[in-house]
Design goal:
CATH class of the largest domain: Alpha Beta
Number of helices: 12
Number of strands: 15
CATH architecture of the largest domain: 3-Layer(aba) Sandwich
Largest sheet: 8 strands, mixed
Helix content: 25-40%
Structural class: alpha+beta
CATH superfamily of the largest domain: Gcn5-related N-acetyltransferase (GNAT)
Strand content: 25-35%
Order of helices and strands: EHHEEEEHEEEHHEHHEEEHHEHEEHH
Number of domains: 2
Shape: globular
Length: 344
């Protein structure tokens, strides 16, 4: 067995085939995700894989993110929820680990972060109480899916229906980005560059879909970008205006994604993505009847380093968050991409 690297400019069809076939593969492991980050942010991308007899036995996509504000790290996968190592067995995983350690020394990073659904290394430092993910099996009958939503949350979906909201599929990222930018500014978070959204759409092609919710008179209230992977739908980047709450537009939006995924794509799994435990987003997903599943973020640390704490719940970022919420939207949209590209 040999450890090799695949250039993001090369044909990645064999890489993608392995991800699609692996039981723990996710959209974040697909070459399209890494390429989108690489092309929009400019961060070095390392598609590491183990080969034996001309076939892939395991892989690990890594992004090198280096900044004065947030440190120097290898992330698998940056700007995503998942993306840790995929391997046929422990021997292959050990080879990926060894190469990961070698690369981390070469690049002089402070740490390597592997974003896993399930723990892969019992002896690695692990953060498993910060984030949870929410995944649920769907019925092929959308009437059953509606009934499966808890009563109070179902009432919010019906409120959006009664308000005659419309779900529209966008071919450009313009409305999504405007709504997303406003939403994250209100949360005190720097917005990602628009080029990331364009690249996600470009790289995933027909497997990337943007759904925007509008009022009867055409006012856009909320929007979300979903990635389709195997028989799963993964609504990821989304946002809405303050007025969206009045119309229950976000509730209607996620129901529309779910219903469309079943009717148009025969999806079986709805992946609500990660949320920080104990936050409003975490509770919102529980209200939909989804059970939280702890995520296991594992770390290979340089000697003397500790597990990083780069998240909005860290008290040292609270002043920045409060200040950011007060910025005029054009200013936040100008400055945000300069900062957010280093967050990972």
């Amino acid at each position: 067995m040999q450890v090799k690297y695949l250039s993001p400019e090369e044909d990645c069809s064999v890489w993608n085939a392995y991800v699609l076939a692996h039981p723990k593969g996710t959209a974040a492991h697909m070459a399209a995700w890494g390429r989108a980050v690489y092309k929009s942010m400019g961060h070095p991308l390392y598609f590491m894989y183990v080969e034996q007899g001309g076939r892939i036995r395991g892989l690990l996509p890594l992004v090198h993110v280096k900044s004065r504000l947030f440190g120097n790290a290898l992330l698998s996968m940056a700007f995503s929820t998942y993306g840790g190592p995929l391997a046929d067995d422990d021997e292959v995983l050990a080879l990926l680990d060894e190469e990961c350690a070698r690369l981390s020394v070469k690049l002089k990073v402070d740490y390597v972060e592997l974003r896993n659904m399930d723990q892969a290394h019992a002896d690695w430092p692990c953060k498993d109480s910060l984030y949870s993910t929410f995944r649920k099996e769907l019925s092929p009958d959308n009437e059953d899916n509606m009934k499966a939503i808890p009563r109070k949350q179902r009432a919010m979906v019906r409120k959006g229906i009664k308000a005659r909201l419309r779900a529209e599929i966008d071919e450009t990222v313009d409305r999504l980005y405007a709504l997303y930018a406003e939403s994250v500014r209100n949360l005190g978070t720097p917005v990602f560059p628009k080029s990331l959204f364009w690249q996600m759409k470009e790289q995933f092609g027909k497997d990337c879909e943007i759904l925007t919710v509008c009022t009867e008179d055409g006012q856009a209230l909320s929007s979300v970008m979903s990635i389709y992977f195997r028989d799963e739908v993964f609504p990821y980047y989304g946002g809405g205006t303050v007025a969206a709450r009045h119309y229950a537009a976000n509730d209607f939006m996620y129901w529309s994604v779910m219903a469309r995924a079943v009717a148009e794509r025969q999806c079986r799994i709805f992946d609500f993505g990660r949320s920080k435990n104990g936050t409003g987003a975490f509770n919102f997903k529980k209200y939909w009847g989804f059970e939280p599943r702890p995520l296991h973020y594992e770390y290979y640390l340089r000697e003397g380093q500790q597990i990083p704490d780069i998240n909005p719940l860290n008290p040292k970022y609270q002043l920045m968050i409060r200040t950011w919420r007060k910025l005029p939207l054009p200013v936040a949209n100008l400055l945000g991409p300069m900062i957010s590209r280093s967050l990972g």
